[in-house]
Amino acid sequence: MYEVGLDWSQVSENERQYLLHEETPWPVCEGSKDFKKFMTAHYERMLGLGIQLMSHIAEGLGKPKDFFD
Question: Distance between CA 61 and CA 69 in Å, rounded?
Answer without folding.
Answer: 15
